[in-house]
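testing teh design pipeline on a random one, pls ignore if ur not involved
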C-alpha cells in the first residue's frame, strides 16, 4: 500500500496505527486478566508486565513492518534478553500471546493485507526481529515511529491507568499520535461507567476519541481543550513520586490560585484527559535525578494536546525537541495546557524555580 493513497494526509498510517494500537490493547488487557491478577498482586513479580510489553511491541511492529517496511521505529523494548537460553520461558509466552493477537479475527474495517487475521502467526525469530525493529536511534530527518507498548507499567500492575502509545514523526515533527487507554472511563463524568478509549490526532486534522471496542466503525468525539478559570482549573500529574516533583506542582498551583485538588493518573492517559478537558494543566518537572524524558513517553501525547487546541512546551517554555535521539535531551520538564493558561503556567514555574533557588542559598 502506498503511504498516502487515500483522501487525507496520513490516512493510511492513521488506520494502521489505530488497528495496531487496538490489538495491543486487547493483548495487554488479557495479560492483566490472566497473569497480573493471578501472579503479581500476590508476589512482587514483574514478569507479566514484561510479557505484555514485549508481546505488544512485537504485535505493533509486525503490523507496521508489513505496511511501512522502510519506516524505522524507536520502541521502548529490545529482544536481547529473549535471545539467550534463560529467556526461553518468557519468550515462549510472548510468542504465544503475540501470535494469538495477530491471528485474531479481523474487525470490520481491518484489511487482510495489513497482516492481521487468521493464519498470520509468526515464527519466534520473526517476532524477536519485530521487537528489535524498535532499536532505531531516532534523529532529525526522515520518517520514524515512536512506540511505548505499555506506558505507565506501574499503573498497569495496580490495575489502574496505562496506555499503548504510537506516534509518527517526520523530520522530528510529530504528525500522528494514537493512544489506547484500556482502563480509562469513556467519560470522566461517569467514572464507574464504560471504559476503554482510543485517542487519535493528525497534524492539521484535529483530535478525537473513539471507543476501544469499536474504533473504526464507532462514534468519533472531537476533542477541544476548554477555557478554564482559576476556580475550575486543576492539575494533572503522575501517581509516582519518583517521576515528577509533586511538591513543585503544589507551589505552582498556589501561585496560580488553583483551589481544586490535582488529579493523579499514570501514563500518557494524562494527555488524553487534558485533551478532553478532564483537567487543565499537565505539569511534569524533574525530581533532580538527571533522568532524561524518553521521546516515546511524549510524542503521541504532544500532538493530541496541540490538535485539541492546546500548547506543549518544556518547563522553560521551549518547544519539545524530538530530533536528538531517543530522549528529549535538551528539554527540562513538561508543561501542557490550553493556550490561554500556558504563559501564566510558565511564569508561575519560573517564580517557583526562583523561590526554590533562593531557599537553597
Ligand atoms: N525518574 C523519572 N523521571 C521521570 N520519568 C520517569 C522516571 N523514571 C521512569 N520514568 C518514566 O515515567 C513513565 C511513566 O510516567 P507516569 O509517571 O506519567 O505514569 C515511565 O514509562 P513506562 O511505564 O513506560 O516505563 C518511564 O518512562
Ligand atoms: Mg513510558
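output:
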Amino acid at each position: 500500500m502506498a503511504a498516502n493513497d487515500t483522501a487525507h494526509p496520513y490516512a493510511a498510517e492513521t488506520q494502521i496505527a489505530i488497528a495496531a494500537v487496538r490489538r495491543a490493547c486487547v493483548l495487554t488487557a488479557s495479560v492483566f486478566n490472566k497473569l497480573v491478577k493471578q501472579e503479581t498482586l500476590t508476589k512482587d513479580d514483574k514478569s507479566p508486565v514484561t510479557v505484555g510489553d514485549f508481546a505488544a511491541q512485537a504485535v505493533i511492529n509486525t503490523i507496521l513492518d508489513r505496511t511501512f517496511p522502510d519506516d524505522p521505529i524507536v520502541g521502548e523494548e529490545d529482544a536481547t534478553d529473549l535471545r539467550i537460553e534463560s529467556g526461553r520461558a518468557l519468550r515462549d509466552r510472548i510468542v504465544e500471546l503475540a501470535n494469538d493477537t495477530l491471528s485474531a479475527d479481523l474487525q470490520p474495517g481491518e484489511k487482510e493485507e495489513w497482516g492481521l487475521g487468521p493464519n498470520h502467526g509468526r515464527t519466534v525469530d520473526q517476532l524477536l526481529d519485530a521487537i528489535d525493529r524498535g532499536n532505531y536511534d531516532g534523529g532529525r530527518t526522515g520518517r520514524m515511529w515512536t512506540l511505548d507498548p505499555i506506558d505507565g507499567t506501574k499503573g498497569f500492575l495496580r490495575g489502574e491507568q496505562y496506555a499503548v502509545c504510537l506516534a509518527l514523526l517526520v523530520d522530528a515533527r510529530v504528525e500522528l499520535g494514537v493512544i489506547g487507554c484500556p482502563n480509562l472511563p469513556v467519560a470522566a463524568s461517569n467514572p464507574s461507567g464504560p471504559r476503554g478509549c482510543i485517542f487519535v490526532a493528525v497534524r492539521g486534522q484535529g483530535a478525537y476519541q473513539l471507543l476501544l471496542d469499536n474504533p473504526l466503525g464507532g462514534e468519533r468525539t472531537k476533542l477541544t481543550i476548554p477555557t478554564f478559570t482559576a476556580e475550575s482549573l486543576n492539575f494533572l500529574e503522575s501517581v509516582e513520586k519518583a517521576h515528577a516533583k509533586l511538591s513543585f506542582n503544589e507551589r505552582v498551583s498556589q501561585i496560580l490560585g488553583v483551589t481544586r485538588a490535582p488529579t493523579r493518573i499514570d501514563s500518557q492517559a494524562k494527555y488524553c484527559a487534558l485533551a478532553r478537558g478532564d483537567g487543565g494543566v499537565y505539569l511534569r518537572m524533574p525530581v533532580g535525578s538527571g533522568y532524561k524524558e524518553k521521546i516515546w513517553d511524549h510524542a503521541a501525547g504532544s500532538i493530541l494536546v496541540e490538535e485539541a487546541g492546546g500548547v506543549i512546551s518544556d518547563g522553560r517554555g521551549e518547544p519539545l525537541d524530538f530530533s536528538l535521539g531517543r530522549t528529549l535531551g535538551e528539554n527540562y520538564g513538561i508543561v501542557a495546557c490550553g493556550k490561554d493558561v500556558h504563559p501564566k503556567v510558565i511564569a508561575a514555574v519560573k517564580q517557583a524555580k526562583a523561590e526554590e533557588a533562593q531557599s537553597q542559598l
